[in-house]
Automatic annotation (TrEMBL):
<keyword id="KW-0223">Dioxygenase</keyword>
<dbReference type="GO" id="GO:0051213">
    <property type="term" value="F:dioxygenase activity"/>
</dbReference>
<protein>
    <recommendedName>
        <fullName>2-oxoadipate dioxygenase/decarboxylase</fullName>
        <ecNumber>1.13.11.93</ecNumber>
    </recommendedName>
</protein>
<dbReference type="InterPro" id="IPR009770">
    <property type="entry name" value="HGLS"/>
</dbReference>
<keyword id="KW-0408">Iron</keyword>
<keyword id="KW-0560">Oxidoreductase</keyword>
<comment type="similarity">
    <text>Belongs to the 2-oxoadipate dioxygenase/decarboxylase family.</text>
</comment>
<dbReference type="InterPro" id="IPR047869">
    <property type="entry name" value="YdcJ_bac-like"/>
</dbReference>
<dbReference type="Pfam" id="PF07063">
    <property type="entry name" value="HGLS"/>
</dbReference>
Length: 486
């Protein structure tokens, strides 16, 4: 049997090879990311703090777009065969500019050991054809009819995926067939694009056209992980690759790396065949696929996330008042004044998630462990190790999408949007959309409970049970930041 994690690793590797063939600039991105990672690892003995160098080098996240709940359910079945579950709800329809008519989730492993083996993720977006801000009733009807006629995933692939999920793997011969079919399902289709239909959808949104204007889905981008995204950004431009205007997410500053920083090279014009209204086939190009890269930091609690969102909003306000100012400098200044400057502060203020380990074998002079986290950390009873953020940021995802669109499209802001939340997305998928905050909190609580038990810290264990040792993480935050577990 080829176990689930090996299927996942092989799929990610083959998908990366395929995408590099289709988009050569992606191969350049991988090369530069590898050079930067090697250099950081050589000069920084703590470079593996957020994951081993082997993990970081192998790490990828992909992005696909589908048009219907049925297509989403089928994609979910394929990812389930790879040990990947829907985590987080992201609504990209409500940005101030360049809003995109999709809601999204990310399929990824959830167990820390599985993430260490291979942390492949696929950010998966569903077109919201019923949202009247983008699609009138007539266009929705024609779009739904077009989507109903296509088949993204062959029945044999779905049958193998179901078997792989049930058996936690596949025999070698079936595994090979599954991987070949799965990779082929995400290749760029050579079938000509109906120019008139694509253009009509493109007037609404380039993303809508990329989903509903073609006969198949495809990998929209693949994303390696890099340890110094600022250095990579500079080197890509030195190589003559045009990058988007800035790095999305937190600024580079002297304090802890948190959440996710990401950027990309601009979407490149790719040759495509078009079917004209008279039935003839002509040549042309589309500019929809790009190469993204990311740097990951510490996962924040809801309270930490609310602080992050507040600082981002204030950065927007100040740069809006003074458009000539450097956005990174404004953000850096705000962060230095308004965000915890050390991992210790993040831990004791319950702003970020950590795993905790007991410090044993040191003389304590008969003292008992304190019953508060600050005391346990400050006096050397526990050590805190950051939990890596494994998920995405709606604002940053929308920023990447927007930076790679040729036009903003159209949206009638006078109309109400179709209500969509994690519960509705779960119904569409047929599987629960998991709350990322809950996953991090569970991992933290499990490690802390074991550490306190090892130390014999009875008072601290009671405080943990009472919700007094660490925050329960039920405080309010950005409603789009996470979804309730179902």
């Amino acid at each position: 049997m080829v176990p689930t994690w090996q299927l996942r690793a092989a799929f990610a590797r083959r998908l990366s090879d395929m995408y590099g063939t289709e988009v050569p600039a992606y191969t350049t991105l991988l090369e530069v990311a590898g050079q930067v990672n090697d250099e950081v690892a050589a000069r920084d003995p703590d470079a593996g703090r957020f994951g081993s160098i082997a993990r970081v080098t192998a790490e990828r996240h992909g992005a696909i777009r589908v048009g219907t709940p049925e297509e989403l359910r089928q994609a979910a079945q394929i990812f389930a065969a790879l040990g990947m579950h829907p985590v987080g709800f992201y609504d990209l329809r409500d940005g101030d500019e360049g809003a995109v008519p999709v809601v999204s989730t990310a399929f990824r492993p959830t167990d820390p050991d599985e993430l260490d083996r291979n942390p492949f993720r696929v950010f998966t977006s569903l077109l919201t054809t019923s949202d009247r801000r983008f699609f009138d009733a007539g266009l929705e009807s024609r779009l739904d009819a077009f989507l109903a006629r296509r088949q993204l995933f062959p029945p044999e692939l779905l049958a193998l995926a179901e078997r792989a999920e049930e058996q936690a793997g596949l025999p070698e011969s079936e595994a090979e067939r599954f991987l070949a079919l799965a990779v082929a399902a995400f290749e760029l289709s050579p079938e000509p694009v109906d120019r008139a239909w694509y253009t009509e959808l493109e007037r609404v949104s380039a993303v809508a056209a990329d989903i509903g204007g073609v006969a198949a889905t495809h990998i929209n981008h693949l994303t390696p992980r890099v340890l110094d995204i600022d250095a990579l950004y500079r080197r890509m431009e030195e190589r003559g690759i045009t990058m988007i205007d800035r790095i999305q997410g937190p600024p580079r500053w002297a304090g802890p790396d948190v959440l996710l920083r990401q950027t990309s090279f601009r979407a490149l014009a790719e040759p495509r065949k078009f079917r004209e209204p008279d039935g003839s086939v002509t040549g042309g190009s589309l500019r929809v696929r790009f190469g993204e890269v990311e740097a990951r930091g510490i996962a924040l609690t809801r309270a930490g996330r609310a602080r992050y969102d507040g600082l981002m909003a204030e950065t927007d306000r100040l740069t809006g008042l003074r458009p000539d100012t450097d956005r990174q400098e404004v953000a850096r200044s705000l962060w230095q004044r308004g965000f915890p400057g050390t991992e210790h502060q993040l831990a004791v203020e319950h702003q970020a998630f950590f795993t905790y380990r007991p410090v044993t074998g040191r003389p304590r002079d008969g003292r008992r462990p304190p019953a508060d986290l600050t005391g346990l950390l400050t006096h050397g009873w526990l050590t805190a190790h950051p939990i890596v953020y494994e998920d995405f940021l709606p604002r940053s995802a929308a920023g990447i999408f927007r930076s790679n669109l040729t036009e903003d499209g159209t949206r009638d802001t006078e109309l109400a949007g179709t209500p969509f939340d994690a519960h509705r997305l779960s119904e569409a998928i047929g599987r629960p959309v998991l709350d990322p905050f809950g996953l991090y909190a569970e991992q933290q609580d499990r490690s802390l409970r074991q550490a306190l038990f090892t130390l014999g810290a009875c008072a601290a264990l009671r405080a943990l049970d009472d919700g007094e040792l660490v925050a329960t993480d039920q405080d309010s935050g950005d409603p789009d930041a996470g979804a309730p577990a179902l």
